[in-house]
Amino acid sequence: MRTFLIFIAVMIGGVAMARQASGPIEEFIAAELPVSGAPGVTYAVTDDGALASGAHGEILQGSGRKMTTDTPFVIGSISKSFTAMAVMMLVEDGRVDLDTAISTYLPGFASQPGSDVTIRQLLSHTSGYSTYQGNDRHKDENGGASELSKQVELIAGWPLAHEPGTRWQYSNANYLILGALIEEISGEDYASFVNAEILAPIGMAHSFVADGQLHEEMAVGHTPWFGMKRAVKDNRPQKVTAPAGGIVATAPDLALYLAVMLNGQDDIISAESKTSMLSPASDASPFYGFGWYLDTERQIAYHAGISPGVETLAALYPAERKGSVALVNSGSGFGFASTLHLREGITAIGLGLDPGTAAAEWGPKSLYLIFALLPVFFVLSLLWAATHRDGLRAKSGAAGAFSLWFPLLMTIGVAVMAVYMIPQFFGVPLRTLQIYQPDFVLMLIATAVTGVFWAVCRLGLYYLGR
């Protein structure tokens, strides 16, 4: 029935066949793709149902395999809007209530810290789970159908970082729980439900939910590596993270999905539910709906996605019935070779807005350069100490003891900052940050090791020499 309704909606809406785009977006990409350092980009735009798309670059850097509009990408956290849509389907069927506690549907949450968290709070990131908790590394252990439910069983025992409903904090944990809810209520695994109830009826023929398998046609992710880009070795999309970031889609397929969100009709879900998804979820969530960020000033909804070596962005302009999506097979470096302006510019032009100019990003660049130079500084300092050991051994008294021991305390502090505090600032463990920023993490570790080694060697040169 839903497939039939989508067909009718498409016919009434006058959705045109996808065509190759030209003009401002193509000119923008020609200028910005080389600056970003990304191997390739693909995009699509829907304007009152008419679709246009384009692709540039390579699926794998240096391979000669051209990017096409039919190249699928792991779309990252844009997947959350699909999970939210699936939940709204269950709400409309009367099987889920937005303001009922999750423990009502998932018995594993009974008598656990998150037992009173509601479905609305999970959808809007006001549940109390933290960004750091949601970014802990989740990996398929055996690729089985039970991976998601096992992960959510672990989440059920986690303490909440905040009282439910009092604070907005983005967390992937929320959408993993919602994925388990979909499985429990529907009686199907997440992938089967979304493939059959959303992707197929919309006509997303080149898209699917992550299955843990290698797909040769998929865009290969590339992570930053000291000013260059390095291909990700394992390009398999993880099943366990599918509800939060594991849907695989092409740009034109995503444009079809955006067109459904914009058509104002009852099809996959009702027009009223679509409006709810694109509206502030609560007082604690004024800039986030259900699976969508909200720019209330410009009346735009959007969501970015970040997967290992892949960055994506989708945006909706409901008042103009325009939608735009950009998919890039490259992760951004810390201020260097960033894809942000490329993605934001494409989507802005697709919505009929000014793409603006790229930000200087001096903060990230400075941080990167500091940790690139610190290991060099510590190694040079160690060489200096070794060649000036006599002066080092001449130190005495309280001032001498301070100058000997303070560097050890200082470098231990720097090491703690490098391997713990900086990842915490970005809301991820060091092991997760390493997946997305391998060169930067290597510099953090090198700083921690060389700094403490230098300070210890100074003490050794002093005391062993005496």
Structure explained in plain terms:
There is one protein chain. The protein is an alpha+beta fold. Helices cover 46% and strands 13% of the residues. The protein is built from 17 helices and twelve strands. The protein has helices at residues 2-13, 24-36, 79-92, 119-123, 131-134, 147-156, 172-186, 190-202, 242-245, 251-262, 271-277, 340-350, 362-387, 389-393, 397-425, 430-436, 438-465; strands spanning 19-20, 40-47, 50-57, 73-74, 208-209, 222-225, 228-231, 247-249, 293-295, 300-307, 310-317, 322-328. The strands form three sheets. It has a seven-stranded mixed sheet with strand order 1-3-2-12-11-10-9, with helices on both faces. It has a three-stranded antiparallel sheet with strand order 4-8-5. Helix 15 runs antiparallel to helix 17 (438-465). The longest helix has 29 residues, at 397-425. The chain is globular. The N and C termini lie far apart (87 Å). Residues 1-18 have low confidence and may be disordered.
Which structural class matches the secondary elements? Answer: alpha+beta
Main sheet strand line-up: 1-3-2-12-11-10-9
Number of beta strands: 12
Describe the largest sheet. Answer: 7 strands, mixed
The Rg value, from CA coordinates, equals 25 Å
Q: Which stretches are low in confidence, meaning pLDDT under 50 for 5 or more residues running?
A: 1-18
The dominant shape is: globular
Number of helices: 17
Distance between the termini: 87 Å
- Estimate percent helicity: 40-55%
Percent of sequence in beta strands: 5-15%
In short:
With 466 residues, this protein is of the alpha+beta class. It has helices at residues 2-13, 24-36, 79-92, 119-123, 131-134, 147-156, 172-186, 190-202, 242-245, 251-262, 271-277, 340-350, 362-387, 389-393, 397-425, 430-436, 438-465; strands at 19-20, 40-47, 50-57, 73-74, 208-209, 222-225, 228-231, 247-249, 293-295, 300-307, 310-317, 322-328. It has a 7-stranded mixed beta sheet with strand order 1-3-2-12-11-10-9, sandwiched between helices. A 3-stranded antiparallel beta sheet has the order 4-8-5. The protein has a two-stranded antiparallel ribbon with strand order 6-7.
